[in-house]
């Protein structure tokens, strides 16, 4: 998310001038496709010449996937139970009763601010309003929430006007509300969500955080897709985890994304993809060694400042 050219070395084989390096790079690029298609084609060919060997391979392959499916299903069931258990917890009450002995960082939860950045590109009024309303409906104190609505200038005048309309509707419902329009064609920048959030973060630091002298260690940043609707209690739960996790200022906080907001009007194929993605992310939560940040997640502001 850094605008510096040092962070934009996204290359391809065409960037290589040495012929040997180019061929090796291209081989690595096409290897996944070769293995996938090669396996399917080889099975068809060998079915004619060595049907018995192919039959054994398919049986072993099916048994492997049966075991893997059972294994993943168990993780999915456990993850679902944990989600249900967590939604029943009064996280504000847990924060109020959090002892200094339980904390890994010596801070009081009412001192912590949540900075929520919402990048926008040609999304409609209803979708953006639902995301903002979910923040209003959360039980975390609104006087500790800084909301940044970050539309792309490339969206066009109609969508920018929608963003200004929503700013007027919601600007008095949080501690601070900032509309940051991401300019087009900034130097050394690849257009997209990351560059939008990076620019919005710099602007909120310059216009709100530094002038108000808010301690960087007291800010948790949540970068949300605009169709994200945070479950009630999310920010109190996030705060609790921030105060009790090991090395909180050098950790990322990944919630489970549930792709169900717009599920029913979507085409059947999209429903399958959405539910599959939901199940996969639930399973990954049960395998912390596989976790990576994805889509909507949170990080300490201090860490973001330190990495630029």
Nutshell version of this structure?
This protein is an alpha/beta fold. 50% of the residues lie in helices and 9% in strands.
Helix fraction by DSSP (H/I, runs of at least 4): 40-55%
The number of distinct β-strands equals 5
Look at the helices and sheets and give the structural class: alpha/beta
What is the tally of helical segments? Answer: 9
Radius of gyration: 24 Å
Unreliable sequence segments: 1-10
Strand content: 5-15%
Please outline the major beta sheet. Answer: 5 strands, mixed
Distance between the termini: 8 Å
The strand order across the widest sheet is 3-2-1-4-5
Topology pattern, helix = H, strand = E: HHHEHEHEHEHHEH
Coarse morphology: globular
Chain-averaged pLDDT: 87
What can you see in these coordinates?
- This protein is an alpha/beta fold and 308 residues long.
- It is 50% helix and 9% strand.
- The chain has helices at residues 19-49, 51-87, 91-96, 125-137, 157-170, 193-209, 234-244, 268-285, 301-306; strands spanning 113-120, 145-151, 176-179, 219-223, 297-300.
- The radius of gyration is 24 Å and the shape is globular.
